[in-house]
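User: Hey, quick favor. My workstation is busy. Could you predict this chain's structure for me?
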Amino acid sequence: MNFLREKQIEHSLVTAVRKQGGLALKFVSPSYAGMPDRLVLLPDGKMAFVEVKAPGKKPRVLQEKRHRMLRALGFQVFVLDDASAIPGLLKKIAEGGETP
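Assistant: No problem, here it is.
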């Protein structure tokens, strides 16, 4: 059941990004486990990584490690477990704001 909820949130993210003229690409790195699920690309060169989780679920330890690594490199990384948070998340990406 949680898998279905996660997929629904992910689909909502992809749809919302597309409506803003961007792309939410599935990010797969076979040789580097624990990377976020989506690479969000918005107009004007704005980008961020998004880890999608079922409601209330948290990233695994390896995922948290990858998030810290990406943030240390200066990238925005978000964990999304609620579709209602998508507008605020996209606003933060577009503004280049700090990640939570």
